[in-house]
Amino acid sequence: MKRLTLPLKEEDIAGLKAGESVYLTGYIYTARDAAHKRLYNAIKENKSIPIDLSKSVIYYAGPCPNKPGEVIGSCGPTTSMRMDKYTPLLMENGLRVIIGKGERGDIVLDAIKKYKGVYFAAVGGSGALIKNCIKSSEVIAYDDLLSEAIRKMYVEDLPVITAIDSNGKNLYKTEREKYKR
Amino acid sequence: MRIINTKVIKENVKEMFLNANVHLSEDIKNALKEADEVSPIGKNILNIINENIDVADKTNTPICQDTGMAVVFLEVGNEVFFEGEFIEDSINEGVREAYEEGYFRKSVVKSPVFDRVNTKDNTPAIIYYKYVKGDKVNIKVMPKGFGSENCGQTKMLNPSDAEQDVVDFVVESVSKAGSKPCPPIVVGVGIGGTMEKSAMMAKEALFLDINYKEKDENLQRMREEILTKINNLGIGPAGLGGRVSAIGVNIMTYPTHIAGLPVSVNIGCHVSRHEERSI
Ligand code: SF4
């Protein structure tokens, strides 16, 4: 299976095909509803934001707290669609790689094609397993948002599936069509 | 009369949430293990799902990071008298302690529209009381994740085309939900009563063992028809295609008005957690 190191290079992204399983290693940043709202509003108001989107991978997740001696608690992906309205603006500002779960709306599909990005799906509900891939975690912004704060995490061999590739091929559409009867 | 100190209820609620967030019920575990998926991607996802359930079990880790909003159904025998703290406070205290000690995520915000500030202890719980005969207290708890909760639907159908309309509405609701509720799902359906009664039954139906046999032949046939139609939608595990989109359709019904047919659908994800205890 394919193994890739983050952040992805342009040619890594271009080489990914929808349906391909990949193991990701490197730094990712968690951000979900509340953090997205803040990032979005900050960009709109021309204020600075706490991460460099062009070098960052965003993971839609809000983990459980860590038990003593552990890095983090369960940390699976959350439903991506709720972030749809924020995603095109973040991509316009440099974001290329997103990890979440579930289908995306057309505005995100168009943005992924336009900016040559990629959308990976992690398996929703597999938080206990994903927790074991996370080797470090630190809150770097919006700590008042608790589980929704932005965390910088180092992941090792995080298993994901290429759900929408840079050409806009959308696995959620093609596969569902295949098995419909 | 049987006197029960509400401390006992608190302790039970706490234990049950600690347990439910980490260990899945056997019916769901088995259905996921035995699921016969044809799609290679779907198979791969089912393996990940099953491995995750196993890891959670063995390491006492929440199966999913969305440890949900705490839903409690309390069925109180008419011969029971509660002493001690007010029952509602005791239930919330049980939830509070479970979410703290279990290192579960606190996912409740105080004001639904403005501010949305976290209450930091996952309370208040959603609590339904029912008065029943006897001297027992039956407690049912459900940590309900919102990826699936957000896909719920209620519709007031026209009674003239009863059966087909019910089937179509449930299947359509699941079709619209697609990948969002982390399939394979369990579908809770409430039919009859009033608008809110149908919604509560849809939620309560998620407590039923997915392998239960419905005594009413027509209803049993409808359950099977809905399940087949859902699995023909092509959604598959995680919504990435396949034939295993749902592992169960649980239905509860109640008499209704001559002019109406309320139907609600409450979706449980594959991490459909619940526990029941009688004390
Ligand atoms: S829908 Fe269920 S399995 Fe999926 S993230 Fe929510 S609680 Fe977890």
Structure description:
The complex is a heterodimer of chains A (181) and B (279). Chain A is an alpha/beta fold and 181 residues long. Helix content of chain A is 26%, strand content 27%. Chain A is built from 6 helices and 7 strands. In chain A, strands 2-3-4-5-7 form a 5-stranded mixed β-barrel. In chain A, strand 6 (134-141) and strand 7 form a beta hairpin. The longest helix of chain A has 12 residues, at 33-44. Chain A is globular. The mean pLDDT of chain A is 97. By secondary structure, chain B is an alpha/beta fold. Chain B folds into 2 domains: 2-21 and 63-144, no CATH class; 146-274. Helices cover 38% and strands 25% of the residues of chain B. In chain B, the strands form 3 sheets. Chain B has a 4-stranded mixed β-sheet with strand order 4-2-5-10. Chain B has a 4-stranded mixed β-sheet with strand order 6-9-7-8, with helices on both faces. In chain B, helix 1 (6-20) packs parallel to helix 4 (87-101). The longest helix of chain B is centred in the first third of the chain and has 20 residues, at 40-59. The mean pLDDT of chain B is 97. The chains are: A alpha/beta (181), B alpha/beta (279). At the A-B interface, helix 5, strand 7 and helix 6 of A face helix 3 of B.
What's this model, at a glance?
The complex is a heterodimer of chains A (181) and B (279). With 181 residues, chain A is an alpha/beta fold. Chain A has helices at 10-14, 33-44, 87-92, 106-115, 127-131, 171-179; strands at residues 2-5, 21-30, 57-59, 97-100, 118-121, 134-141, 150-164.
